[in-house]
Each structure stands twice: as structure tokens, then as C-alpha cells.
């Protein structure tokens, strides 16, 4: 099934995002218009042929770059002239070296890479924190042993707010927006009415709250989505997911994604302005239910509760309003004190196990607290770790978002490793 057909089935509901996760991809290429191709490769690649060579918007991940190259070469043999990075996340920026090796072999001019001016600083930070990024991505994606890269193809040309690029008569307008990242670029090709959104649209609740990653920008993200919605694009090629064809569909998808972000942002800020604590806010703010039912806004990767936390972090810093958290006791000391009050860490674990059996969200949240406290109070108790594994394993099995499922499954695995044979 090509990407346009898959898009239509997801849009119409003949195929659900449970049956076909929208963030997947096998590097299959779909020709989406004259001289335009779309490679659905987890992080997508959009390609345009010109008399002077290929133009790519994004280039693929380290793991998919070879397959992306093969798919593109089966479609067009011309040299890569220009590559645009929509942002610096590692799943989008590792395809250029293959084309450079090809250019060296064939005696072609090397490709030019274009990106926002903040992108090189992202690469610098990734190199500085390679160990940390390896750990959090192992946990998020459940890939033990994942290696975080420390070598990057930096851009040759950067811009600040807006840049027009012309290749072989094809005009591209590059626009900066802060959204999922601070270095985001969305690309508009007016003569073809094609919009490349990068990860500002991904066929899921926006990745605006990722709990293990750096700051995201919900309000500015929504502004960019509204601007893109007003262009009259007839084809949307997203950073993840599948294309959306038809001006009405493109406009609706972008505007409703903006509406979701605006709602979460405005509710959160209103409560912050009223003096509410973070705890009250995350348990009060709700995304509009009708938006979460859209096939392109389901919380299958990130989720609204995490976006709320990220909005708080942007405006409110790390203090959550609870004075006990300002200069807290070590977690293990608090856990031992509570275990003593409860009659021992085993009592906490027993209560956690009982709560987890209900399967209700509120009970599972409380069970998670108690299981974690029990394990901190008695870190060498295999029976308590068995309970912790069961609680977080159950939590992982019931979560829809990749973010929550990854963290809970990691906790499950940690405790299973402590139980022993």
C-alpha cells in the first residue's frame, strides 16, 4: 500500500492507528506528484527532482539512511544538490554522507546542507551529553545498548527567520518556528503547493511534552501551524506519518493540531496565573476530547499530560509549588520513614499490589508511588521488586503513548533484573 492510499484509509477510519502505527515506516517510496516523492521511513524524507539535481527535505536516520538511499535511487539517479534539515533530531539528519560518498565516486559536486542557525548548537549539545542521550533513548524506545552518535554532518548554510532557496528553477521557502525544537524549519514550495512540515505535524498528539527531552514550545508551535494552514497547501508531507492530500484536509489537520496545543497552553497558563500548583494543573487540564479522537491526533507517542508539564517548565521552572520539594530529603530516606509508619516496606508493596489489580488509572498511579517507595526503602528485597515489576509492567501494558510505555517498561525490567533467577 503506498503512502497516499494508507493516508486515505487512516483518514476515513477504514484502518486505525492501532492497526497501523502512524509513526512507522519501511523506506517505501511513493511518487506524490510530478517530480516529487515521499519516502515513509519512520522519519520521512521528501524528494524533489530538478534539472540541477535532487532536493531533499530531511535525509533519514542512521539506521534507515541506506534503505532511503536505495529507494530514492530507484526513483531518480541524479546527484543530491541540496538537503534541508527540518530540525536536528538524529532520526532526520544522517542520510547525507551516503550521497557524499556517491558524489566523490562520480566526480559530482558535493551537496549543500541548509538548516536553521540553532541546529549546530543542538549537535554540539548531543556530543556533550552523548551518554545521557544514550540512556534516555534506551529507556524511551526499549533498546538496550543503543549507541548515541557523536559525529554529525553540520549544515553548510544557515538562516535565522526565513530563507528562499532556488535549485534548478524550483523555489523553496524555509521558515523558522519554535515547536518540538528550537531549530525547526518548515518548507513551503508555492509553485507546487507542497508543504513539508517537519515534526510540527506527525499524525499524533504533538511531541510537545516528552518527559526525558529538552524544552518544547506549545504556543509558538500553534502559531506556526496556523500560518501553515493559511497557505492553501494541497499536499502536506510530514516529518512522521503519511502525506495528507487535498487542501481542505491539510487545513483541517493543521488547524486542529494548533487548537489542541492552544487549549492545553491556555488552560495551563490560566491556572498558573491563578496560583495553582503543578500537581493541581496536571490533574485538571484536559485536552478537547473530540480532537483526541481524530486519527491524526491520537496520543500514541506523546500525550497531553506531558505537554502540560512542559508548558509549566517553560514558564514556571522546575519548582512545582510544593515547598517540601524545594529542598527535599533523599528519596530513600523518605521511603524508609513512610515504610516505618506503614509497618514495613512489605506493607507498602502489598498495598501497591492490591491497588494495581483494579486496573483503574487512579489506583495504578497510587500503586506506582507505593511500589517505588517500597523498593527504595528495601532495595535488596526480591519480593518487593517482584511487586514493583508487576505494577509497572501492568502500567506499561495499559499505556497508549510511547513515552509512558517506555518508562514503565524500563522500571519493570529494572526490578526483574533485581529478582534474579
Would you give an account of this structure?
Helices cover 45% and strands 17% of the residues. The chain contains 15 helices and 13 strands. The radius of gyration is 23 Å and the shape is elongated.
- SSE succession: HEEEEHEHEHHEEEEEHEEHHHHHHHHH
The quaternary organization reads as: single chain
Per CATH, the architecture of the largest domain is: 4-Layer Sandwich
The count of β-strands is: 13
Poorly predicted ranges: none
What value does the Rg take, in angstroms? Answer: 23 Å
Q: Report the average pLDDT across residues.
A: 97
* Main sheet: strand order: 1-2-3-4-5-6-7
How much of the sequence lies in strands comes to 15-25%
CATH class categorisation of the largest domain: Alpha Beta
Q: How does the overall form come out from the CA principal axes?
A: elongated
CATH topology of the largest domain: Metallo-beta-lactamase, Chain A
Number of helices: 15
CATH superfamily of the largest domain: Metallo-beta-lactamase domain
The profile of the biggest β sheet is: 7 strands, mixed
N/C terminus separation: 45 Å
Residue share in helix: 40-55%
Strand and helix layout:
Blueprint: H1 3-12, E1 25-33, E2 36-41, E3 45-50, E4 53-57, H2 65-75, E5 80-84, H3 96-106, E6 112-116, H4 119-128, H5 130-141, E7 157-159, E8 162-167, E9 170-177, E10 184-189, E11 194-198, H6 218-229, E12 235-238, E13 244-245, H7 247-273, H8 278-282, H9 289-292, H10 304-316, H11 331-342, H12 345-356, H13 361-377, H14 382-398, H15 402-419
Parallel strand pairs: 4-5, 5-6, 6-7, 11-12
Antiparallel strand pairs: 1-2, 2-3, 3-4, 8-9, 9-10, 10-11, 12-13
Helix pairs in contact: 6-7, 7-10, 11-12, 11-13, 12-13, 12-14, 13-14, 14-15
Amino acid at each position: 500500500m503506498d503512502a497516499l492510499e494508507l493516508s486515505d484509509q487512516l483518514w476515513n477510519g477504514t484502518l486505525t492507528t492501532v492497526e497501523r502505527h502512524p509513526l512507522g515506516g519501511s523506506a517505501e517510496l511513493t511518487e506524490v506528484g510530478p517530480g516529487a516523492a515521499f519516502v515513509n521511513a519512520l522519519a520521512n524524507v521528501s524528494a524533489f527532482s530538478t534539472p540541477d539535481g535532487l532536493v531533499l527535505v530531511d535525509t533519514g536516520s542512521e539506521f534507515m539512511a541506506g534503505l532511503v538511499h536505495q529507494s530514492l535511487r530507484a526513483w531518480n539517479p541524479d546527484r543530491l544538490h541540496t538537503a534541508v534539515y527540518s530540525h536536528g533530531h538524529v532520526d532526520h539528519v544522517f542520510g547525507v554522507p551516503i550521497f557524499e560518498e556517491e558524489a566523490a565516486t562520480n566526480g559530482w559536486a558535493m551537496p549543500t546542507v541548509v538548516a536553521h542557525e540553532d541546529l549546530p548548537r543542538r549537535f554540539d549539545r548531543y556530543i556533550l551529553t552523548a551518554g545521557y542521550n544514550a540512556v534516555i533513548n534506551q529507556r524511551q524506545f526499549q533498546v538496550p545498548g543503543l549507541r548515541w552518535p557523536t559525529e554529525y554532518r553540520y549544515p553548510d548554510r544557515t538562516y535565522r527567520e526565513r530563507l528562499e532557496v532556488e535549485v534548478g528553477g524550483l523555489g523553496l521557502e524555509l521558515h523558522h518556528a519554535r515547536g518540538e525544537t528550537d531549530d525547526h524549519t518548515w518548507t513551503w514550495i508555492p509553485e507546487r503547493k507542497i508543504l513539508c512540515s517537519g515534526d510540527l505535524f506527525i499524525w499524533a498528539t504533538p511531541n510537545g511534552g516528552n518527559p526525558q527531552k529538552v524544552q518544547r514550545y506549545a504556543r509558538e508551535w500553534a502559531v506556526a501551524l496556523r500560518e501553515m494552514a493559511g497557505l492553501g497547501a494541497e499536499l502536506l508531507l510530514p516529518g512522521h506519518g503519511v502525506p495528507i492530500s487535498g487542501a481542505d484536509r491539510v487545513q483541517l489537520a493543521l488547524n486542529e493540531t494548533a487548537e489542541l496545543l492552544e487549549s492545553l497552553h491556555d488552560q495551563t497558563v490560566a491556572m498558573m496565573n491563578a496560583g495553582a500548583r503543578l500537581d493541581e494543573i496536571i490533574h485538571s487540564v484536559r485536552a478537547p476530547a473530540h480532537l483526541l479522537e481524530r486519527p491524526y491526533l491520537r496520543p500514541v507517542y506523546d500525550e497531553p499530560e506531558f505537554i502540560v508539564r512542559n508548558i509549566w517548565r517553560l514558564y514556571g521552572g522546575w519548582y512545582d509549588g510544593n515547598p517540601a520539594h524545594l529542598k527535599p530529603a533523599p528519596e530513600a530516606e523518605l521511603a524508609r520513614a513512610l515504610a516505618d509508619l506503614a509497618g514495613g516496606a512489605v506493607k507498602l508493596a502489598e498495598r501497591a499490589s492490591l491497588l494495581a489489580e483494579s486496573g483503574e488509572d487512579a489506583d495504578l498511579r497510587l500503586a506506582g508511588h507505593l511500589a517505588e517507595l517500597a523498593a527504595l526503602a528495601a532495595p535488596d528485597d526480591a519480593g518487593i521488586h517482584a511487586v514493583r515489576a508487576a505494577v509497572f509492567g501492568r502500567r506499561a501494558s495499559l499505556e497508549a503513548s510511547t513515552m509512558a510505555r517506555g518508562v514503565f517498561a524500563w522500571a519493570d525490567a529494572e526490578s526483574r533484573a533485581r529478582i534474579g533467577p
